[in-house]
Amino acid sequence: MTTMNLLHAELLKARKQQINIFLVLIITFVAVFFHGWLVIAAKVNPSYIKDAEVFLPYYNSLNLSVKVISFFSSIIAIVFVANSVGGEYSQDTWKMILPRYGSRIKFITTKLIVGLLAMILLYLLGVTSWLALSAFSYWLLDLNPPPQVLLTLKNGLPVSNSLKTLVLEMFSMSFYGSLTLLATIGARSFPGGILGGSVSSLLMTTATIIPSKYVSLSLPSLHIANLSAQWMQNKKEIEAVAMAFRGNVSMSVSLVIVLAYITCFIITALLLFQKRDMAGH
User: Fold this and answer.
1) Mean of the pLDDT values across residues 87-106?
2) Distances from the Cα of 91 to the Cαs of 22, 83, 97, 275, in angstroms?
3) How large is the average pLDDT for residues 254-280?
């Protein structure tokens, strides 16, 4: 019962936090701006009708929405986790809350579960809103659905690819979320978590230019890219990742390596959280 109450409380808190509302507003602004600009441009200049016919029809709109929302995925994970955990340090609420619960690990694990659920909902909300805006924009421009729309719906391809992309993004978010969790607990602050997660992400991206096979094989970001490329069967991305690795790496190897990183980050963060004084003194 205690765990369910804690889970419910964390869900309510996540919904009301200003930084999470800000993330929703940013994604909403990007979606509205893109569709608004495209509709106005097509109304003013008929040459933009061709662009509307490319970007607005389903399944093209689904692909574009997934790419746009995926661009924000690591940012969402870093900001959400850093705020959820680090905010408690700045408000000095750990000492008031934790004595009511027998396990600090249970408390922080609940935050992780809530964070994952919230990120999934935010991702799905972003994609759904984008599709609705695309359909509305298509109606405003009085366009007719092209034949390939009916074909992709019949084959079920959009659903299959969308589910794969969702799984991959949740996996990526889990990695960046676990990394930020460790950084936040280590720094005992929201800014420290943001800085640690962001700098670590930047360093991993920069490290891909180092001409060393051993460095490349140790980068979880490259292994996440390898999982995405091979599962989605994107030949260009597979070749690019293989070039970065200086050879081919199987999906199973990449999966094990990334899972090992996530497990290590979470266990280290939980142990640190369990041992240290939560008030930061």
Assistant:
1) 60
2) 20, 11, 11, 20
3) 82
276: left (phi over 0), alpha (psi -120 to 50) or beta: beta
In contact, 57 and 149? CB cutoff 8 Å: yes
Q: Nearest 10 degrees: CA dihedral of 100, 103, 108, 113?
A: -100
Find the mean pLDDT for residues 162-191: 85
Instruction: Using alpha carbons only, give the angle 89, 70, 262 rounded to the nearest 5 degrees.
Output: 50
In this predicted model, what pLDDT tens digit does every residue of 37-92 receive, in sequence order?
A: 999 998 888 888 888 888 888 777 877 888 888 788 888 888 888 887 777 666 54
C-alpha–C-alpha distance, residues 180 and 92, integer Å: 20
Give the 3-state DSSP-derived string for the chain, with helices as H, strands as E and coil as C. CHHHHHHHHHHHHHHHCHHHHHHHHHHHHHHHHHHHHHHHHHHHCHHHHHHHHHHCCCCHHHHHHHHHHHHCHHHHHHHHHHHHHHHHHHCCCHHHHHHHCCCHHHHHHHHHHHHHHHHHHHHHHHHHHHHHHHHHHHHHCCCCCCHHHHHHHHHCHHHHHHHHHHHHHHHHHHHHHHHHHHHHHHHCCHHHHHHHHHHHHHHHHHHCCCCCHHHHHCCHHHHHHHHHHHHCCCHHHHHHHHHHHCCCCCHHHHHHHHHHHHHHHHHHHHHHHHHCCCCCC
Q: Are 98 and 278 in contact (CB under 8 A)?
A: yes
Specify the pTM.
Answer: 0.79
In the chain, where the domains are located: 2-144+152-275
